[in-house]
Amino acid sequence: VIVVFTGGTGGAKLVQGLHQVVAPEELTVIVNTGDDIEWWGLHVSPDIDTILYALSGLLSTERGWGVEGDSFRCLERMKQLGQPSWFSLGDLDLATHLTRTAMLRAGKSLSRATTELATKLGIRARVLPMSDDRVSTMLDTAKGTLTFQEYFVRERHQVEVRRVRFEGAHRARPAPGVIESIVAAEAIIFAPSNPVTSIGPILAVLGIRDALKQTKAPIAAVSPIVGGAAVSGPAGALMKMMGWPSTIAGVAKAYEDFLDGLVADHADEAEASVLRSEDLRVRCTNTIMNSPAARRDLARFVVEACAVKRGAGVGL
Amino acid sequence: VIVVFTGGTGGAKLVQGLHQVVAPEELTVIVNTGDDIEWWGLHVSPDIDTILYALSGLLSTERGWGVEGDSFRCLERMKQLGQPSWFSLGDLDLATHLTRTAMLRAGKSLSRATTELATKLGIRARVLPMSDDRVSTMLDTAKGTLTFQEYFVRERHQVEVRRVRFEGAHRARPAPGVIESIVAAEAIIFAPSNPVTSIGPILAVLGIRDALKQTKAPIAAVSPIVGGAAVSGPAGALMKMMGWPSTIAGVAKAYEDFLDGLVADHADEAEASVLRSEDLRVRCTNTIMNSPAARRDLARFVVEACAVKRGAGVGL
Question: How far is the C-alpha of B110 from the C-alpha of B104, rounded, in Å?
């Protein structure tokens, strides 16, 4: 089984690629829930939904989030009724949040609700939230403390961030199956998600980082940084705030205590040759996933690179 | 101020008519909440919503409930996700339920939430739920005990009813303004709603029936029974179950302890002449409200009939 760690839209593209090259039963996706938000009284798990939609073929290609061909009629009415409207939920998308919220209120765990939603959507890959306990990514910024969605969506990540905290992480337990998946994996892949706010919350959950250090599976990351800048979103700025360079070296730094191999873009060949070492194999390919074929090719590249034993250094 | 007691779709038509002939500030609508339902985790108040939509011009003319031109995309997805789908909430309609539910969860009363929604919709008439306390109309039927919506919508009122109960009514207090409106009214009108399940729950709330007996305002009802049968819905069958004839005499019976006048349809002239007495004036007109003009004419007829003091017997 190949285990993928992922957060937002960039990660979902690699998961779509992996879904093309690996049998669905051989794919486990561990998803960030630090971005979860209570919105209009509903429990919204944006990163889980992006993965569910990606794996069921529902994901909007244009937006990278939400359901393809969705409408926003309810949202327009909510605006007229004076309700907050900066976070967009589509009419079709709403059904997912209503269903999840009903399941959680009925006492089901988030992982159970996720499995049931995945089954209803015909998904055969395994989708696991990082934890059934609530972890909230909070950003101390020039505009005060914001939740991740306030920072990312409402403020369009245009405010200076001084600190990122994962509230609740110190007492959050990994969801059932997470540690077992890490231990039993054939390979572990970090999708090109933001290392600070997409992968950071997952690594902050009790025991996950230790499991990654101890697993026998080779661990590779796909860099979300290409040519010294994030492909999309605020990864570069947040990595700098963490004291890491906003380069592929910074990505390696974020995962240094368990990473075996890094897949970078051809644009970073020079950086790659500096970074390459006995402990870290680095290989370059096209990492811009602007088509289904590009996603598949990158996924195949990463899987093939991982097809060696740990200690043998990942074939990168 | 004219005070209207109303339940479902028939009552909403008369309220639309009254809205054409009375200044909005002079209109108070007291609405049944015994049909309220928790649906997809949302608090839905079907009768209040019908009145809010009727007064804001949003009501679907074709359906008589919900928003004109609404779509049902979320509902279709809910069905695909295995959620119950026999109760239809439109995409625009959903915004009302999400907003109300958020207000209630924030600790607001149903009457406060109703006022805020009405204000947002530009409504200047006063809309009052019968009570801020939960009252549930329950029907003991051949298929077991059903909520009103299970009986009316899911079973399409095609099951035999043995008994109707208003759970919680014996400890429910009238919402703020209800008793005061009854006491201070110039006239009180019972819309042509089902006397058993639409008006019955309101009359079961503590103190409302007594206030109706004691008010100085003339009280008139518009018969929901025309030509010996309900214009729509199960009023006839339910009235029989209560031991009342399913005629205009049955309507008079339902309200006998406070009714001054009854407005019946021309189709019931013969019944009317039998029913007419010193205590109950009965007058006939066209009560089928199949156009805005018909609604306005009936409303004007009822208002003019009420323009006398109580004891003088309503000018019917």
Answer: 7
CB atoms within 10 A of CB B84: 11
Residue B95 to residue A80, Cβ atoms within 8 A: yes
In this complex, do B40 and A77 lie within 8 Å of one another by their Cβ atoms? Answer: no
Cβ neighbours of B42 in A, within 8 Å: 98
Strands (E), B130-259: 136-141, 144-147, 161-167, 187-190, 219-222, 225-226, 229-230
Contact assignment for B78 to A92 by CB distance below 8 Å = no
Copy the structure tokens of residue B80: 């695909």
Chunked mean pLDDT (size 10), chain B, 316 residues: 94 96 97 97 98 97 94 98 96 98 97 98 98 98 96 94 96 97 97 97 97 96 93 91 96 96 96 94 95 96 79 52
ipTM (interface predicted TM): 0.90
Among the listed residues B296, B299, B96, B26, the one whose alpha carbon sits nearest the alpha carbon of residue A76: B96
The answer to whether the CB of B233 falls within 8 A of the CB of B157 is: yes
Span A270-315, pLDDT tens digits: 999 999 998 999 999 999 999 999 999 999 999 998 876 555 545 5
A111-167 per-position pLDDT tens digit: 999 999 999 999 999 999 999 999 999 999 999 999 999 999 999 999 999 999 999
Relative orientation angle of helices A46-56 and A110-120, to the nearest 10 degrees: 20
What is the identity of the amino acid at B288?
Answer: I
Beta pairing class for A187-190 and A2-6: parallel
Pairwise CB contact (< 8 Å): B74 & A96: no
CB contact under 8 A, A71 and B74: no
Q: Calculate the average pLDDT of chain A.
A: 95
**Helices marked H in chain A — which ranges?**
9-21, 46-56, 73-80, 91-105, 110-120, 148-149, 178-184, 200-204, 208-214, 235-241, 248-254, 269-275, 292-306
Phi first, then psi: give them for residue A167, nearest 5 degrees. Answer: -65, 130
**What is the value of pTM for the model shown?**
0.92
Min Cα–Cα distance to chain A from B107, Å: 13
CB atoms within 10 A of CB A243: 8
Q: Are B29 and B130 within 8 A, CB to CB?
A: no
Q: Which of B75, B94, B116, B120 is the best mutation test for A, with the most CBs of A within 10 A?
A: B94
**A125 near A27, Cβ under 8 Å?**
yes
Query: Amino acid identity of B223?
Result: S
The two tokens of residue A151 are 């920072």
Chain A stretch 21-60, residues whose beta carbon is closer than 8 A to a beta carbon of chain B: 40-42
Tell me the shortest Cα–Cα distance from A187 to chain B, in angstroms.
32
CB contact under 8 A, A81 and B95: yes
